[in-house]
Amino acid sequence: MERCASRTSARPPHPQPAPAPAPTPGRGICMMSTAWRDKQEHHLINFIGAFLAANLYRLNFLSISPDFIFNNGGLSVAFIFETSWDCGNAAAVFSRVNALKRQFKNLYVVVSVPTVEQIESFNQSYFKYGMELGSPTFVSVNDPEMGFEMMLKIAHARGVCKQQDISSTMRNEREQAVQCMDAYLAQAIGSIEAIAKASESSILENTDLSRDKAETIVRFFRDPQFYLSPKIN
């Protein structure tokens, strides 16, 4: 028989949140489900708000299917957040997991299991309801505060990886463009030495480059103030 601690006490309704301040530059946006919010203790909501503000995230309360959605670096990451495992609610939790993992590519499930009984119950339920390892990823924590901190770290890490992939792709594209230009000029004018000595009129006569590009090439090889100065495009 499964044993676990469950939450049965009713909670007073949450006061309506104050109007959100004007958007400011930050790391990302955190969207919290209003349905999830209304089931939680006030101190946890206050902790989440303060923790997000300290990490430059903007918090929005919305009617969404997951409990949280983070948008960071152009990537959205969804979370189901069980703040205290209840064995009596296991079937509903795993049914919801199966439904949401079909809707969200990046879905994580964070479960707070502070007691040995809850850990045992959760482990039994995980296999009872046929979960596949990593589909989605489950993260067990000792308390809700730790759980939210873990969620933010996961979302931030995924966003950083996304940005690094974009930067790497752009860098590769720039390198390919430069290589193509080098090959094009070498074929039209000759060696790098010949390109370095070529005049603007010579480049225009032997290529179909614009006058601006021809001038840039000439300045690059002959004007130290040009090629030694930083370029921000």
Question: What does it look like?
Answer:
This protein is α/β, with parallel strands linked by helices and about 230 residues long. It contains nine helices and six strands. Strands 2-1-3-4-5-6 form a six-stranded mixed β-sheet, with helices on both faces. The longest helix has about 45 residues, at about 145-190. It is elongated and about 80 Å long. The chain starts with about 25 loop residues before the first strand and ends in a 6-residue tail after the last helix.
Protein traits:
elongated, alpha/beta, disordered C terminus, 9 helices, 233 residues, 6-stranded mixed β-sheet
- In helices, the fraction of residues equals 40-55%
Strand arrangement in the largest pleated sheet: 2-1-3-4-5-6
Distance between the termini: 65 Å
Shape: elongated
| Count of alpha and pi helical runs | 9
Q: C-alpha Rg, in Å? A: 28 Å
Summing up helix and strand content along with how strands pair, one would put the structural category as: alpha/beta
How would a textbook summarize the main sheet? 6 strands, mixed
Mean pLDDT: 79
How large a portion of the residues is in β-strands, by DSSP E? 15-25%
Q: Based on DSSP secondary structure assignment, what is the total number of beta strands?
A: 6
Order of SSEs = EHHEEEHEHEHHHHH
Give the low-pLDDT segments.
6-10, 16-25, 227-233
